[in-house]
Amino acid sequence: MLIKNIEQRIKINKIISISTIAFAVFIVIAGFFFAYRMIEDSRKSIYILDNGVPVLAKQTDVLLNRPVEYKAQIELFHRLFFTLAPDDTYIKDNIQKSLYLIDDSGKKEYTNLKEKGFYNQIIASSSMVSIHTDSIALNMEQKKFSFFGKQMITRKSSVITRMLITEGFFEDIIRSPNNPHGVILKNWRIINNEELSNQNKNSY
C-alpha cells in the first residue's frame, strides 16, 4: 500500500513538473510572439516632428506609401531644378538642393544647360522659370518613372510655354535631412522640351 502511494505521488509530481515546464515554455513563446508583433507594429508607424517632438501621425504600412513618396520626390526634384529666378544665388541654391535627390545625371544636365548659357539668359532677361506637373507615371517592376509637365518662362514682354517630358529610374536609399523621402533618381534625361506657345504680354 505504501509503495503504491509513493508511486502515485511520483506520477503526480511528474505530471505537475511536466505541466509547469510546458506552461513556462508557452509563456516564453507567447512573450516572443507579442514582442515580435509590437516591433512589427512600430515599424508601421509614421511620425512627424512638431517642434522637435515626434508625434504619431498614422499607423499604417509604410510600404503602401512608397509610390506616393516616389512621386513626391520626382515632383520635388523637377520643381527645384526648373524653378528659377533672375538671381544667381537663388539658382545655385535650388540646383544644389535638387542634386541631393539625383545621381550624376542631374549634374550633367545642369552643366549642359550652364554651358549653353541658359542660366545667364535667365538672369540677363530678368526671367522667371516655373513648371506645372501634369502627371507622373511609375513602373514599379522596373523602378522607372516618366514625368509629364509644362515649363513656363515669364519674361518682361512674353510668356513662353514649353513641353517638359523626362524619364529616369528611382532607387531606395537611407533617409537624410537633404533627402527625407529616401529616394534617389537615376539615369535621368529630358525627352521633350519643345516650345508650345509664345504669348506677348499687353504693354500699357
What does this structure look like?
With 204 residues, this protein is an alpha+beta fold. The chain folds into 2 domains: 1-58, no CATH class; 63-198, Nuclear Transport Factor 2, Chain: A. The chain is built from 5 helices and 7 strands, in the order H-E-E-H-H-H-H-E-E-E-E-E. Strands 3, 4, 5, 6 and 7 form a 5-stranded antiparallel beta sheet that branches. It has a two-stranded antiparallel sheet with strand order 1-2. A hairpin with a 2-residue loop joins strand 1 (45-50) and strand 2 (53-59). Helix 2 packs antiparallel against helix 3. The longest helix is centred in the first third of the chain and has 42 residues, at 2-43. It is rod-shaped. It starts with a helix and ends with a strand. The model has no long low-confidence stretch (mean pLDDT 83).
At the fourth CATH level, what is the homologous superfamily of the largest domain? VirB8 protein
Distance between the termini: 123 Å
Rg, rounded, reads 31 Å
* Structural class based on helices, strands and sheet pairing: alpha+beta
Shape: rod-shaped
Give me the oligomer status: single chain
Please tally the helical runs, counting DSSP H or I stretches of 4 or more residues: 5
Uncertain runs: none
Q: How is the biggest beta sheet arranged?
A: 5 strands, antiparallel
Strand content: 25-35%
List keywords for this structure.
Nuclear Transport Factor 2, Chain: A; 204 residues; five-stranded antiparallel beta sheet; 46% helix; alpha+beta; 2 domains; rod-shaped; two-stranded antiparallel ribbon; transmembrane helix; 5 helices; single chain; 7 strands
